Fold this sequence. Notes:
FAD/NAD(P)-binding domain; 2 domains; 7-stranded mixed β-sheet; 19 strands; binds NADP nicotinamide-adenine-dinucleotide phosphate
Amino acid sequence: MSEIDIAIIGGGPTGLAAGLYAARARRRTVLWERGVLGGQIALTSLVENYPGFADGVLGPDLAIDMQRQAESFGMETVYGGVDRLRREPGYWVLATSEGEVRARAVIVAAGADPVKLGVPGEEALTGRGVSYCATCDAAFFGGEVVAVVGGGDAAVEEALFTTRYARHVYLIHRRDRLRASAVLQQRALAHERIEPLWDTVVEEVAAGPDGQVASLALRHVASGSRRDLPVAGVFIFIGHRPSTELLRGLVPLDGGGHAYVNLWMETGQPGLFAAGEVRVDSARQLATAAGDGVTAAVRAEHYLQQYVD
Ligand code: NAP
């Protein structure tokens, strides 16, 4: 069984920032990524809100640079999954697709996946008008008509944010009442550019000749009537699911599956950290994700010095 110092599970900005710090501290650091390196930024075209890039930066380019930077200090990247995590005296044992690996400290940075509608066109048009992040993408829809799907705090808050740019925002909800908090509801329902479409579900996202979102096929659930709604973009906020399957049973999780941590990203289990969107109360931003990874790596180094070296 191979032995390493710091294992990082997840190759989004949290994991890559953790990898940079861990490897630069001269710890043998291995990062596992089962999907696309870069996580959610790999799905984002232009990142305009990461400090230090006054002209913005392309998400995939930033991900590649983050990986290059961490690897230049010795971080190793494995494209594969970690299936299980268990504690043995002095180590965590990771069951990976390539066999078992012992790590003295583990940083779980597996991120979260937006819940998908699961309708035709949604996946193919992601990044071409379908978005799961208004903070990231609303600015691309200046003067356009867009739709936001969902009725919770996230959907309502992001609908309000989107009005900074869009000329008209349809708020499409499957029921006749919002789930969002009263203050957000009041603000959204009083907003002149937000129009709620009640009891309505999206059945399909359709593209125009330019390959960008052009319309939504809607169904009114009460009457069953159908219609097409022309929009330039659709923001989907029907919940996020943190990827914390590995932590289940090892550390306490909240009702939404997020791991409880302290301000150092410590889970309470020795040498086990949870950072970024897997933890409770994440701001869900690229800069905070990277910050969480740095915090976890700094604390992991401290843990290794204090208890292991
Ligand atoms: P949420 O509260 O779970 O709301 C999800 C919304 O999506 C609900 O309105 C739900 O409809 C709808 N939905 C779920 N599945 C759907 C589907 N398949 N098709 C259509 N609609 C669907 O999720 P969230 O808004 O992401 O919030 C998550 C947590 O973060 C909450 O605790 C929230 O309070 C918190 N949050 C707080 C703030 C804030 O305080 N400013 C901002 C963002 C998030 P139903 O209502 O019919 O179930």
